[in-house]
Amino acid sequence: MANERSKDKSHEVVEKLGIGFNKLNNKFVNLLEENQKIKQQYKNHEEKIQEILRTNSELNKKNKEFLCTISELNEKHREILRTNSNLIEENKEFSRINSELKSQLHEKDIQFEKLQQHTSNLEKQRNEESQQIQQLEMMKETLEKNLEVLKLDEIDENIIKALKENNKNFSSNFFNKGLEKDTEKPELYSDIRVVVGLDFGVKYSGFAYSYVTDQDICSNDKWHDEVGKLKTNTVLQYDDEYNNVLLWGAPALAEKPNRRTKSQNNKRNNPVELFALYLSSLDEGFKPKLPVDYKKAITDYLGEIGKVIKVTVAMRWPRVDYFKNTLLVITVPAEFSEKSKIIMRTCAYNASLIKEEYSTNLQIITEPEASVMYCMKNRENQVFAQSNTNIMIVDCGDDVVNLTTHNFINNHFGEITNKAKDSCGSSFINAEFIKYLRKRLGDKPMNLLRDNNYGQMQYLIQQFCNNCKIPFTGDDPDFIYELDIERTTPVLLQYITNGKIKNTLEEDDWIIEIDFKTIKSIFDPVIQKILHLIKAQLNNTHETCSAMFLVGSLSESKYLQKRIKEEFNHQVNNISVPAQPIAAVSRGAVIYGLESINSNGTNNLENKDSIIPSRVLKFTYGIGLCLDWKEGVDPPSRKISNGKVFKFSPLVRRGTVVEVDQVFSSSNHRPSLPDQIAMNFKLYRTSEYNAEYCDEPGMELLGELYIDLPDVHLGCDRVVTLGLSFDQTVISVFAIYEVTGKKYIIKLLCSEY
């Protein structure tokens, strides 16, 4: 029994072991299968890795090839840059050579034209000499006839009659031939169809134009695709080398800000401005420093505005040849010297505003004269109808206010008081506005704005002018100007660092409200200077002023008009502002051109309404002469050692109405000694009508003219004719040595006559 139980247990154990073995075996089999799968996966991964390695190797190879290609391209690019740099240098050299060749060609053209003119003059001289020879032969023939008569022993009435007839025939032929040339009047402006008046100002410029037959004057009001402005800024914006003009006019000065970008790093070259001051008489220290030669700047600006002029003329009158059929009248300040006018004329040629073959189609007049002419054409209530009327022109420009008082006598204008001017123009109100902002925002932000964002600063001033300076009348105490800094000058937001100021502005949404009282305080310092200037001018006139005309940019200010009328309406009956006062100079220049054409004889020889202003002389002009002292006539104290006395001999007296270039002369001046080899004429002027001596109080020595006196063998029979004439700002004094016809001349710059 025990064995059977032992066997049963053993059998049971074996059975359990078998079952366990089977399980282990099954697990082992499963492990082998999984191992097999893992090996297969490993093999697959290994193949993929090999594939990746092969791909990576190929990519590395291609990358090396690509890098080699990039390196080759970089080398080629560097070669191209080197070649391009060489081409640029060669191009600069070519441009320089081309410029020199053009300059040489231009000089050759000028020399050729001068040679042609010289040839023409020689031909003309030959013809004149031929006529003179004919006249001399006629004179010889007449003299021979007269000599034949004189040889007779007896001379009866018939012989005397024949003698007179010979002389009469000679005189008729001689003088008629001599006058033929003088009576022929060339039609100087016969080809002119259009007149353009160009007001080239220090800060602003503009032009007007008219067809000759219509005489309907138009002012240009379209600049840079913007309509409504009668002038644009006299400003240029150049490239980095200052060779080429990128912008001109208002776009070159005022830069409208972009609200999306408030960066401080959008700085561009400072604009080139105020270059016209180099033509003035200002001291060099007051003239701006320019990165280019001022003549280049003037030429470049005239070239740009000239393009607008030519396009305007072509669009209005397509059949008009601009250079041949257009008379251009450029205005300059009254104090410009003859040298400055010559420079202006040269710059106009170089800017292709005029061609040398049509040089007579360019005239230069002064701004005050142009203003006078415009006011005369726009007179109200016939203030000029009286035979003797005093008129004051108040030209309120951008920098300077110019006053001129004129006397209207029998349709002639003459300056009767000293010109007055002061630096109290429109730009000084702008300066007061900036001064106010400095008080509100601080000096540092405004300095940064000026130095880093000059264009935005000018835009800020431009907005002030448009929305405050011109609209302000001084009548509405509720007037407020809202300056939106974020919209107008967003860069200021970064420049304002003062916590208190910044917090206040943020609370006000960056808007500064400038009230009536503050605006008035901005205006009044400038207005007061203008009122003082006018008052002094009226006091200097010593005669009633019948009318006052306000012209210039600031004259559009209703507040200025109001203050002037309040101050002077009890002294001046008619104070008015003509239409488009800002364009008075350019429109007056057109009127001058039209009247020049009329007075030339091409359109109206008998134009009695011509308004080209003459001058009423304020001084008596004459020369000093050394004459014999006369007892009872000359004071003994004036007698000099040789029995002579120096006396004043008038050529033209105060109060005379003088036309431009009208000549006043005196003849029969002779040397006081037979062996004298030179003469010296001294030109004097005095405010007295009757003056006798050159050292009287108020006598002014203007200049001296020396002339040579050859032909000593003629003794005291050497006659000299002396004369003078008045241009716009120049007195020309001349002397003609009648023995040879040689002419001596000096020009004296004179701001008042």
TrEMBL record:
Residues 21-153 form a coiled coil. This is Hsp70 family protein. Keywords: Coiled coil. It comes from Rhizophagus irregularis. Transmembrane segments: none annotated. Gene3D superfamilies: 3.30.420.40, Actin, Chain A, domain 4 (3.90.640.10). The keyword Cell wall biogenesis/degradation does not apply.
